Amino acid sequence: MAALSASPIAALSFRDGSGAYTKGQVTSPKTSGTTQLQQSTSGSSQTESTSTTPSQTTHIQHSIRNGDVSSIGVNLGGWLVAEHWMTSAADFWTGVSDDEAGKGEYTAITKSASPDTIRSNLANHHATFITESDIADIAATGINTVRVPVGYWIVGFDNHDPSGAAEWEHYTNGTIKYLDALITDWAKKHNIAVLISTHAAKGSQNGADHSSPCDPGNPHWSKYQENVDNTVAMAKFLADRYKDEDAFLGIGLLNEPNGSTDEDALYAYYEAAYAAIRETSNDCVLSVAPLLYKQSPDVMTDFMQAPTYTNVWVEWHPYFVWGYEDTSDYDLTNTAVKVNFQNSVSQWNARNNHNRLFIGEWSFATAGKFSNNQEGYYEFCQAMVDVMYQAGAGFTFWSWRIYGDESGFNAWSLRSVLRDDRLKKIFFSADPAARRQLDSGYSIRNGETTSKGVNLGSWLVAENWMTSSADFWKGAVNASQGEYTAIAEATDPDTIRSHLDYHHSTFINESDIADIAAVGINTVRVPIGYWIVGFDDSDPSGKEEWKVYTNGTIKYLDALITDWAKKYNIAVLLSIHAAKGSQNGADHSSPSVYGSEFWGSYSENVNNTITMVSYLADRYKDEEAFLGFGLLNEPNGDTTTDVLYDYYEQAYTAIRATGSECVLTVAPLLYEQSPDVLTDFMLAPSYTNVWVEWHPYFVWGYDDVSDEDLVNTSVKVNFQGDMTQWNSVAGHNRLFIGEWCFATNGKFENNEDLFYEFAQAETDVVNQAGGGWTYWSWRIYEDETGDNMWSLRAVLRDAKLKAILFPDSSNSGSVTTSTDSSSDQTQLQQEQQQVQQSQKL
Predict the structure, then answer these.
(1) Enclosing H/E stretch for 137
(2) 388 and 445 in a common domain
(3) Residue 424 and residue 405: Cα distance in Å, rounded?
(4) Phi, psi angles (nearest 5°) of residue 780
(5) d(Cα 609, Cα 632) in Å, to the nearest integer?
(6) Can you tell me the mean pLDDT for 87-108?
(7) What DSSP line would sit under 646-703, residue for residue?
(8) Which of 212, 615, 677, 799 is the most buried (most CB within 10 A)?
(9) DSSP for 57-83?
(10) Looking at the domain assignment, is residue 557 inside a domain?
(11) Neighbours of 305 (CB within 10 A)
């Protein structure tokens, strides 16, 4: 029977001084440091990332097992247990009638005129259908788990066979080598957790083709104790074989038990398998499934619970295919999913001490629905995903691939689904409050997640244009030249320092971090100055210029990294904005001589910066929220590349000497930011966790560019071309967009729709950066009302801009609270419709 499917009908400039912006206008343009990147390509399509071996401290499997992370996964269906509907074009079905093939692998082999030929072709299928390249592709999408159906014959023996029938010998021999390769090599290398699913138990637990029954349609598993004992022995053997493997998550103890399978025997088996596996000191995850027709929140509610049992998940397989043939498109989405399915998951989660729920199989397939309603189909898919993410253990989509899915659309094939950009965004969407992730500082560092962040600009390094109404600028001379000049030339420096300290304690506080986390942001970039460490061991002149600044500001950084960011799961990247001597002469580097950059002219300045980053790296190296450093913000002017690049090398060595493997971003000279610079600098494997940082702004240098050309040429061609070129370089370091925003120089005043197109285009490109991005900036004085494109909290009050930046966010309102809309979900009372069939078509 054929599978059912639901077919879905630069020129860059950089922040460099002072200015304030409201949508459509820049009132104080910043003029220096503007350059254009030369384009070698104009590609406008998003390039897919490739999976690399990350430098990681802990495999993701441990975090899933411990409950720090939920599975976002996919099944490797049709690989080690063949299913005809998924692989009908494969050679191993040749010579077998569709009727016999549809009964499963055992029947196909035993009824064939040439069983050895089928077994030989099956061996080739096992070797080619899923390979390491598939696991790399899976990892590259952001998936963290694969579920692997296996049959009892995989272990290569049957010690519970009193009849001596040796039925397991009919199957292809030696398939365990592929499971070994997956768990001990591929999944380990690509940071993917592996859950083994007992799909085909001896005797068959459901009679369906995917259980490869000897007597198709009839489940004999629970009728004979030898079958149950064989399954216990199989589970114990596999658990013991892989118990020390980082990638091994656990075992689904029995897939879709159904039909005449005895419930008492089923539950007794789960207990026996649990005891046998735990006897080997193996605490892997074990999922237990109710009888297929009893999947509901009222079944297994008090079965094998903690603390008596550990790491037991309850597994469901909700499909919206069978039994929904006569359901309208509207009711399928709004009743079957949004009411019934939502209710089932809510009811399960509402119980005290419930085992984690795992959605082991599901898909976007329907019974021929939405054929003329593409938007309705997307709404259906989004509704499903919204509920899936509420399962405490996570989910695995059925399935990764199907024969013939290389083109077109097939809702059973995730690699096909992900070619649809809308479905890809839907699949990887999650309400922040409902999503449990690995601590962001680690997961971003290890490449499991990219940064979607914001700068905490003008907090610990003051910028007058962002905070001009603050008390600490009152009485300051030449405030626009930066913090040092404002203090050093003031008639009352102590008063300015006192007001600055108050600013540090109030401009950013824990409530800001809570609000930032609530919108789905996972990273903050924090500009700091060299004085934050409270000393200068490289000061032969004895000027002690660092003492001009407010003392003790490191306490605010400590609070952010050790408390607030840890609590709200936000990664922190420190940016060296103000190096001793100034690396660019701009106000945000707080130069002692405005407009002059002396950092690279004197070795004491460079040495001071190395000491500073080494000190901070050592201070925060064991903090979960600490992501790393931007080693120097926007070096410019007279700073030379020789001095700059040598500093990066020395800083890297000093930081790694502390034992810290944190991220280190390296920026080219501001006027040299292009995909032709730093392409072969500090690359892996000699260097680890090095990112290259750019700051693309579409403000300065675009005065004479039309609104249309700004969108269609500057962004969609030039900026996209740079991004594509960078990502196409083999072995490239990850690119990080450390600063960018929606500000323009007076554009789009009379064309709001084109402004939104500009914002979408810009976002589409920055989302392709392998290290992610941080928007400039979180807040500006007096941004509580109105539009200000330099303030992200103001931007997010615009529902359209919020949807552009965070398309998976369901809350289009204000970001004035740190709770998410998921807390307002109604606790529905109706039960989910039971899944009535066991086949996947």
Answers:
(1) helix 132-141
(2) no
(3) 16
(4) -140, 150
(5) 9
(6) 91
(7) HHHHHHHHHHHHTT---EEEE---GGG-STTSSTTSS-TTTS-SEEEEE--BSSTT-T
(8) 212
(9) SS-HHHHHHHTSS-EEEEE-TTSSS--
(10) yes
(11) 15
Q: Is residue 841 in a domain?
A: no
Name the packing angle between helices 263-278 and 225-242 (round to 10°).
30
Residue 65 belongs to a domain: no
Q: Count CA atoms within 13 Å of residue 419 on its CB side.
A: 15
Contact 602, 581 (CB under 8 A): yes
Q: Please give, one letter per residue, the 3-state secondary structure of 560-591.
A: HHHHHHHHCCCEEEEEEEECCCCCCCCHHHCC
Rg value, the chain, Cα: 30
Do 255 and 194 belong together in one domain? yes
Asked if residues 61 and 194 have their Cβ atoms less than 8 Å apart, the reply is yes
CA end-to-end distance (rounded Å), the chain: 8
For residue 189 the two structure tokens come to 């290398």
Q: What pLDDT is recorded for position 822? A: 29
492 contacts: CB under 8 Å, gap ≥ 6: 475
Contacts of 334 by beta carbon, 8 Å cutoff, 6+ apart = 383
User: Same domain, yes or no, for 587 and 736?
Assistant: yes
Looking at residue 130, its amino acid is: I
Question: Is residue 393 one of the residues assigned to a domain?
Answer: yes
Three-state SS for 642?
Answer: helix
Residues 599 and 673 reside in one and the same domain: yes
DSSP labels, 378-408: HHHHHHHHHHHTTSTTEEEES-S--TTTTSS
Question: Do 739 and 698 touch, CB atoms closer than 8 A?
Answer: no
If DSSP codes are grouped into helix, strand and coil, which group holds residue 250?
strand
d(CA 392, CA 546): 50
- The predicted pLDDT at position 322 comes to 94
Secondary structure class of 723 (helix, strand, coil)? helix
Q: What percent of the chain has pLDDT over 70?
A: 88
**Can you give the pTM of this predicted structure?**
0.53
Instruction: Residue 163: give the domain boundaries.
Output: 70-427
Contacts of 418 (CB under 8 A, 6+ apart): 141, 424, 427
Q: What is the pLDDT of residue 832?
A: 27
Note whether 47 and 84 are same-domain residues.
no
Give, for 227, the enclosing helix (H) or strand (E).
helix 225-242
Amino acid at 615: Y
How far is Cα 192 from Cα 138, in angstroms, rounded to an integer?
9
| DSSP assignment letter at 736 | E
Q: Where are the alpha helices (DSSP H) in 456-546?
A: 464-467, 483-488, 493-507, 510-518
- Among candidates 195, 183, 278, which has minimal Cα distance to 236? 278
- Return the DSSP state at 145: E
How many domains does the chain fold into? 2
- If pLDDT is split at 50, 70 and 90, which confidence band does 441 have? low
d(CA 727, CA 387): 34
Nearest to 393 by CA among 65, 31, 152: 65
pLDDT at 25 over 80: no
Does 406 share its domain with 509?
A: no
| Exposure string over 693-728, b if 16+ CB within 10 A, otherwise e | bbbbbbbbbbeebebeebbbbbbbbbbbbbbbbbbe
The owner of tokens 């998976």 is 808
- At 254, the pLDDT band (50, 70, 90 cuts) reads very high
- Tell me what pLDDT residue 440 has: 60
For residues 640 and 741, membership in a common domain is answered with yes
User: Is 726 in the same domain as 594?
Assistant: yes
CATH number at residue 448: 3.20.20.80
Read off the pLDDT band of 142 (50, 70, 90).
confident
Distance CA 532, CA 580 (A): 11
Q: What is the mean pLDDT of residues 762-776?
A: 98
pLDDT bin (cut points 50, 70, 90) of residue 808 is: low
